[in-house]
Amino acid sequence: MKKVALAYSGGLDTSVIIPWLKEHYHCDVVAVCGDVGQGGDELTGLEQKALKTGASEVHIADLREEFVTDYLWPMVRSGGVYEHKYLLGTSIARPLLAKKQVEVALATGCDGLAHGCTGKGNDQVRFELTYKALAPHLGVISPWREWDIVSREDAIEYARKHDVPISQTTTKIYSRDRNLWHISHEGGALEDPANAAPDEIWMLTKSPAEAPDTPEAVTIGMENGVPVSVNGTRLSGVGVVETLNEIGGRHGVGRIDLVENRFVGMKSRGCYETPGGTLIYAAHAELEALTLDRATLRYKQRLALDYAEMVYNGLWFTPLREALDAFFANVCEVMTGEVTLELYKGNVRPVSRKSPHSLYSLDIASFTMGASYDQKDALGFINLIGLPIKVRALLGDRRG
Q1: Cβ neighbours, 10 Å, residue 393
Q2: 132 and 182 share one domain
Q3: Residue 81 within a domain
Q4: Does residue 82 lie in a domain region?
Q5: For the chain, does the N or the C end have fewer beta carbons within 10 angstroms?
């Protein structure tokens, strides 16, 4: 391979990969970075750093609105959560970053693609499945599956020897991934699930103990299953997420500590902060309960499990994901309204739900007897549903 497009973040792994590729493959390296909301600190000086360490070209693309509109909102409509806790912050960004990398590779005449994902992680699957879907003819280099670097300490030593500037040290070696939706923390003291998560790791959320002593209400307006406003102010997709991140983070909302099953077969432990996403999912669930009939809601919840696994496993660019998106989009057409949540020291409590498509009938649900529901109908219903139970019991009596 003569020219390779590298998915570049400026972190420890991709920083040392540039000189490593040039040393072992003698190729030109095109560094490709996508801005998915990781913050200015991570992007500041990124181009200069990549060029200084040997890249021949650097491409940085602002993908924030695309990330929200084409990736986050479809996931929100699905309601998908991985293993009861994980709101898929890293997983959902990888297909978009890999897609942009492929686009740059094709536009700049690259004949290869490279990434910094470890051979033990899920991200290698997510990136490479996207490569196969969008550019199956390009070669793929995965340094972690080839080089003799076996730990982050080794990578730090390689960086030191090759004058690669990095922020990681052997005493502060957490691996983090941040985007508009969340931030993840892995490695270091977190590798042993018996260890409590150190207070120092949290970056987006206040400790619930230090959160305000007064509850705060936040109202999220939704249209067709996705949020469009916060406290009555209509915002862009990016604006919604950023605003809710600030509000939720201030109240210690959105922290999880998870031992999860990686797609590659092992268990791993990570801590995640998703303050805005936690509020959005809570509002979505309340509106879902108000506007969907029982059969549709149950089926949607079943498919949400499959959708979450597909996102986690990197199966984004597949016909099944596109078909599921069509189902969720159709179901969510009635999910328009407002949900008010109360936040207090890490807790989220729904206090109000409104929708023009609400299926809730006060006349039917009220304890006051009304004409819309004849309670005598319940007798026949119970008799029919209970007939198999009754027959079995009678048969058991005769056997006795």
Answers
A1: 10
A2: no
A3: no
A4: no
A5: C
Q: Which of 91, 175, 268, 355 is an active site residue?
A: 175
Q: Based on the number of CB atoms within 10 Å of its own CB, is 201 exposed (0-12), middle (13-18) or buried (19 or more)?
A: middle
Give the model confidence (pLDDT) of 34-56 as tens digits: 999 998 778 999 999 999 999 99
Could you tell me the residue range of the domain that residue 125 belongs to?
3-74+91-171
Angle between helices 319-331 and 294-312 in degrees, nearest 10? 150
- Residues 234 and 211 placed together within one structural domain of the fold: yes
Active site residue 257: no
How many other CB atoms sit within 10 Å of the CB of residue 137? Answer: 7
Q: Do residue 232 and residue 133 come from a single domain?
A: no
Helix 89-107 × helix 123-134 angle, to 10°: 40
CATH number at residue 311: 3.90.1260.10
Look at the chain and report how many structural domains it folds into: 3
In a domain, 83, yes or no: no
Residues 163 and 259 in one domain: no
Does the annotation count 123 as an active-site position?
yes
Strand segments, DSSP code E, in the chain are 3-7, 28-35, 57-62, 112-114, 139-141, 175-178, 183-186, 216-223, 226-230, 233-234, 255-261, 267-273, 337-344, 347-354
Q: What is the pLDDT of residues 97-132, one digit of tens each?
A: 999 999 999 999 999 999 999 988 999 999 999 999
Q: Please confirm, yes or no, whether 13 is among the known catalytic residues.
A: yes
- Does residue 9 carry a catalytic annotation? no
Distance CA 207, CA 193 (A): 20
Pick the catalytic residue from 15, 28, 77, 94: 94
Retrieve residue 193's tokens.
């699930």
141 forms beta bridges with: 114
Asked if 1 and 98 touch (Cβ cutoff 8 Å), the reply is no
In the set 15, 28, 77, 123, the catalytic residue is 123
If asked whether residues 160 and 286 sit together in one domain, one would say no
The tokens for 190 are: 């977190």
Strands 347-354 and 337-344: antiparallel
pLDDT tens digits, one per residue of 319-338: 999 999 999 999 999 999 99
| Domain presence at residue 378 | yes
Q: Of residues 13, 28, 35, 177, which has the active-site annotation?
A: 13
Domain with 13 in it: what CATH number?
A: 3.40.50.620
Residues 210 and 252 in one domain: yes
Q: How far apart are CA 233 and CA 219, in angstroms?
A: 10
Q: Mean pLDDT across the stretch 171-198?
A: 91
